[in-house]
Amino acid sequence: MTPLAISPPRSTPEPDISSIPQDAAMIPNSATPQALTVCIYINKQANLGPYLDRKKVQQLPEHFGPERPSAALQQAVQACIDCALQQKAVFSLIKQGYGGEMVSVSASFEGKQHLLSLLVVNSIGYVLRFLKKLCRSLLCDNLFSNQPFQQYNAVSESPEVYENRRMEAGRLLDQLGLKI
After folding, report:
1. What does the pLDDT average to over 136-153?
2. pLDDT tens, residue by residue, 34-79
3. Which ranges carry the SLED domain (predicted)?
4. How far separated are the first and last CA of the chain, in Å rounded?
5. Residue 15 above 90 pLDDT?
6. 3-state SS record for the chain
């Protein structure tokens, strides 16, 4: 049996680009992997329930991000702690993560600094579900979203007027036997 001669594959050679300067403007976007990011928007007109201080919430930025999902989650949860009327109460409502890579949130109460670890996540859906459950525990409605909120002009409608309108609409729908 005679061994077969192996010849190199025939293909078009790559062009020589060694003399072309390489800078960020020349690298196509598809060549650099894009990290998953999320913006978490804050509804400053939300019903904040009994745990959060409206004045502190008003001082928060309009949104957290764009950030990696775990960083946006950490910022949103830390904001809830920082805006608490009593940090201990809010801190106790947060579910700690276990295993894997963690990020921490902190609170100060009883003269001590307390830390809690949250699982690092890469899912926008997980972040939104976590924040929805946290808001349910805090008895506040519609505080966070991945979409911008329509902010009401203080001159045209205060949060109290908006809430009264919303409650009135709910009563009307109940009278009509309709559910949203």
Report:
1. 85
2. 679 999 999 999 999 999 999 999 999 999 999 999 999 999 999 9
3. 37-147
4. 81
5. no
6. CCCCCCCCCCCCCCCCCCCCCCCCCCCCHHHCCCCCCEEEEECCCCCCCCCECHHHHHCCCCEEEEECHHHHHHHHHHHHHHCECCHHHHHHHCCCCCCCCEEEEEEEECCEEEEEEEECCCCHHHHHHHHHHHHHHHCCCCCEECCCCCCCCCCCCCHHHHHHHHHHHHHHHHHCCCCC
What is the per-residue pLDDT for 25?
A: 38
Cβ atoms within 10 A of the Cβ of 102, count? 15
- The Cα–Cα gap between 39 and 160 comes to 27
Contacting residues for 58 by C-beta, under 8 A, at least 6 apart: 44
CA proximity to 69, closest of 128, 149, 14: 128
pLDDT at 136: 93
Report how far residue 81's alpha carbon sits from residue 109's, in angstroms, rounded to the nearest whole number. Answer: 11
**Quick check: 9 pLDDT over 60?**
no
Distance, CA of 42 to CA of 63 (rounded, Å): 6
